[in-house]
Amino acid sequence: MVAPTLRGSRPVRGTTRELAAPWRHVDFVLVGAVLLISCLSLLMIYSATRNQQAATELGGTYYLKRQAAYLAIGLVVMAVVALVDYRSLPALAPFLYAATIIVLLLVVSPLGATKRGSQAWFQLGNFQLEPSEFAKGAMIVVLSAYIAQHRSDLDGRRLATLLGLIAVPLLLIYRQPDLGTAMVFIGILLALLLVGGAKPRHLAALLLLGVLAAGTVIQLGVLKEYQVDRLSAFLDPAGDSQRTTYNLRQSQIAIAAGGVVGRGVFEGSQTNLSFVPEQHTDFIFTAVAEELGFIGAVTLMGLFAIVVWRTWRSAVLSRDRFGTLVCVGILAMFVFQVFENVGMTMGITPIAGIPLPLMSYGGSSTVATFIAVGLVLNVHMRRFT
Amino acid sequence: MGILGVIVISLFAAMLTRLWYLQVLAAPTLSVEAQNNGVRLIATEAPRGRILDRTGKVIVDNRVVNAVTLSRDDAKRQPELLARLSPLLGASVEDLTKRVNDDRFSPFKPVPLVEDVPKETLIYLKEHQAEFPGVDGVQLTQRNYPNGTVAAHLLGYVGQINDTELEAREDDDYKAGDTIGKSGVEQAYEDDLRGRPSVEKLEVDSKGNVLRTLGVQPAVQGNDLQLGIDLEVQALAEESLQQGLETARRSADRLTGERFAAPAGSVVVLDPNNGSVVAMASYPTFDPKDFVDGISQAKFAQLQDPAGFFPLNNRALQGLYAPGSTFKLVSALAALQEGLIQPRDTVVDTGSITVGGQIFRNAKSKPNGRIDLTRAMTVSSDVFFYEIGKNFWEARGRFGPAAIQEAARSLGMGEPTGIELPFEGEGRVPDPESRKKTHDANPTAFPTRDWFTGDNMNLAVGQGDLVVSPVQLANAYAAFANGGTVYAPRVASAVLDPSGQVVRKIDTQTQRTVDLPPSVRAPLLAGFEGAVADPDGTAFAAFQGFPLEEFSVAGKTGTAEVAGKQDSALFSAIAPVEAPRFSVTVVMEQSGFGASAAAPVARRVLEKLAGVEPTPVNRVGGSD
Fold this sequence. Notes:
The complex is a heterodimer of chains A (385) and B (624).
Chain A: H1 16-19, H2 28-54, H3 62-83, H4 89-108, E1 113-115, E2 118-124, E3 127-129, H5 131-149, H6 156-175, H7 179-196, H8 200-220, H9 225-233, H10 244-258, H11 269-272, H12 284-317, H13 321-346, H14 363-381
Antiparallel strand pairs in A: 1-2, 2-3
Helix pairs in contact in A: 2-3, 2-12, 3-14, 4-5, 4-6, 5-6, 5-7, 5-13, 5-14, 6-7, 7-13, 10-12, 12-13, 12-14, 13-14
Chain B: H1 2-25, H2 27-37, E1 39-44, E2 51-52, E3 58-70, H3 72-77, H4 81-89, H5 93-100, E4 111-114, H6 119-127, E5 135-144, H7 152-155, E6 158-160, H8 163-168, E7 179-181, H9 184-188, H10 190-194, E8 198-204, E9 210-217, E10 224-227, H11 231-249, E11 265-271, E12 276-283, H12 297-303, H13 315-318, H14 328-338, E13 346-349, E14 352-355, E15 358-361, E16 369-372, H15 373-379, H16 382-394, H17 396-399, H18 403-410, H19 432-441, H20 453-460, H21 470-482, E17 485-488, E18 492-496, E19 502-505, E20 509-513, H22 518-533, E21 554-562, E22 565-575, E23 582-588, H23 594-610
Parallel strand pairs in B: 2-10
Antiparallel strand pairs in B: 1-8, 2-3, 3-4, 3-5, 6-7, 8-9, 10-18, 11-12, 11-23, 13-16, 14-15, 17-20, 18-19, 21-22, 22-23
């Protein structure tokens, strides 16, 4: 590693050790981008919900206030995560893994709550906790720890172990059912294998197997009809507008309605009149696109790109393999979710219930994302220590 | 990591490309959809135009009625509301529930529960608004018939548009539940009468809640329709027809001793100079008012019951009858035009004629001695016309096998007259060709394939398979009256805007012309005049006391045999003879001789047309 050089006119004080202190290397570009996205998120969630909610006893700012609270919690959690040296994590990996499995088992037990057909929540008073959101981060740490421990020497047996490790939570989440999050797991796994040193033939075989499995699953009717409908709706967008493709059609109309400059905040008719279902959660991107237009949507994509770039940079700069892999896993999770979510609103990817990171309304997803950002900051901060 | 980088960059590129496509390239088309998404159009029908008679008297207009409406939200919130409304509105809870759930009413508007509510009820509801949340009153316009059932068949009725009509008019702005003309001029002039509905543009959210009104396009009332009908003549014609039929029912058929059934009939009065319909009556009749709020099942079933002789049918157009001796106009025309006979040629009428061993008789076998065409027409000699039928067939090498039929068709028989009203019958003019065709199509039902002399003889006196509608018959006499022009009869004369300005004149339409030189027309006309004025004329008795000197009438009686039924009575007349302004035809089912039953009805109508006090219909004696 190259020794750091000081910039500016600050006098040189203390030792190299002090210069390398983690608090001196907080990635403010990443934090800045994340905060900007979060502010946009608050604005758009308010825009998408104020009309609907104004009429109810909860009031027009209900979702806005809650999301602001989640954001505050997220920032605190992010700071905490950043402070604890990430290098202590591999040792905790077995416990983290066990805890993840137990919690995922509990959520499909009678303790879990069912909402819109999925048993994926714990009802905690006024809040719903969605463990699968946290499971993503946990599994990134667990898999990275395993790969790092074996110095990226992934032979057939270790690959099988990795697959076995991820299969358990994956199946549990798939059973909820939450097909979207299960798909994110696969994205994370592939990225980690790619960077972690899996052999090309293994990767090719895995991809082939995946395609075959997906085909078999659809053919054998393991997926429920609505799942197949959602997955294939984007291939036939002119289909029945009353059912699955209704979401898709309305969301594309909303995006197109924005045009280049958008219709203005609180001015989007699709947004104001609640034509796009789930607009404050999974379809939040349509509110951005309608009200802020192409310029606004591209700006948001740019902010996402900055987050991805800084994560990438942290992965490259990390002084150990584990740190690199954790950043790569988070990057994969982040990119997969953004692409899948934004793609689905535009009709280029299947509809799956995945939140848009940092934008969608939701406590679990917000806090989980901030944990991930905290991990990236953590790796970045400690690249000299 | 390089591969991962490539993947990440291509995913972002894909998103940006798609975003560019949707927001920049496809935006113009898709954003129109976004605008329409939140907008609902609520159409409310405009009042229909009025229908006026030739002098401007109102036959049909609209009246404003009070209707009680209920918002669907309130109906859902308070299910017991309907039970409380039921006794007040005089409608069962079941009917009210049906109304609330009726999808022909817009989901964005309160549903009209009951129309034509007394004002007191409305006031009561307004005074007790707190007890009846969501209940309101609106004013609707409804079809109104100030003259009761007069001209019911001509006017037709209005009703709710059905699926077939909706499909046929999908380019127009009709929607389920709209009112549409179902028959008569209400149907024929639907486009003029309807007007343009008011359209309210509402902004709604995805749940259908109305947020605000974006704009209102006001309704445009339908145009008025002026008819050629004279309301007074129409009313009198209907009344006279009914009197005639009632009189017939009190008389017995002298041959069988049975009373005449006289269940139905019609009267047509045309203006020969342009084909305008002056009056058109059909009996039995119906009340168009019954259809206004939607006719009840029971009432409709009653109108469709064969025992009631189908009052909805307009017999003047739809009724098809053997014309009997009224058809002699056609046979004589054929004979003179073709040169089969000369006006002065005579025949000795002994009361019957035997051809091929079969005896063909006059009515009551009455002998008329040596007679020419004019005289034959006056006394209605069948023998004279049997001769014509027989001679035409025997000389078919020279005149063709269907000389009489050609004359009939030239006067418009055997095809629709082209009147603008719906459901017009075609009639049937049989000839050797059609005889063959019907036999070949169904040999069991029609065992005879050949055309015989007897067929031609029967045809010449208006019997056999020949049938015409009353309006065809009246139109043929009108063409004779005006010198040979066959018009398509017209009920309506003009479309007027609500201020009374003429929007469009309804032109007379010439269907064809017939060559009627004086040498042909004069002897026939003299025969028809004699039938009314000559003491030996068949209609002489019926016209006793009629002021023929001031208003001369020429006419022809007809009595048609109908298999399995009593004779149909017919009478066709034109008046005044010097310059005819009216062609009157009366047809009465199962009523006996035309001279006895139909001519007296025509006389009463002609009295009205002549401007004298109409006398009650009296059945008179007669033959034919």
